[in-house]
């Protein structure tokens, strides 16, 4: 499996019973499970206290505390790798490339800027329709590539408002 730490460091990890191989190098590790989500490892004559802070099984991500320092960990197993090779990985399929107007209306405010990184649920713009203000939120994580509207613009239903890269 592939393990990514802090979106920066990549490792190929194989765990077979008590044998751990990282990047084709066998590691001699003495480990003990202490309590739920807590472990203790000794590797290369150094002691490591490990705590599972949080885990998202759907995204295969976790937050792990090692000797007081927190690390973000992402795991990609053999099935994820196969789906990616076939072009069927859901990380790409769930990406939204554009935001369209859900109804005709008037753009009251554009909250984001081009090249801005947004998270799922972040407010993008305010659209007035039928005397009601509607906050249009991002359906996905991404970077705003282009904003095709400005404050004061009248838009039609399904008109493209924002594009993501």
UniProtKB/TrEMBL annotation:
Pfam families (alphabetical): Biotin_lipoyl
Domain Lipoyl-binding: 96-165
InterPro entries: Biotin_BS, Biotin_Carboxyl_Carrier/Decarb, Biotin_lipoyl, Single_hybrid_motif
Keyword Translocase part of the UniProt annotation: no
Domain of life: Bacteria
Keywords: Biotin
Protein name as annotated: Acetyl-CoA carboxylase biotin carboxyl carrier protein subunit
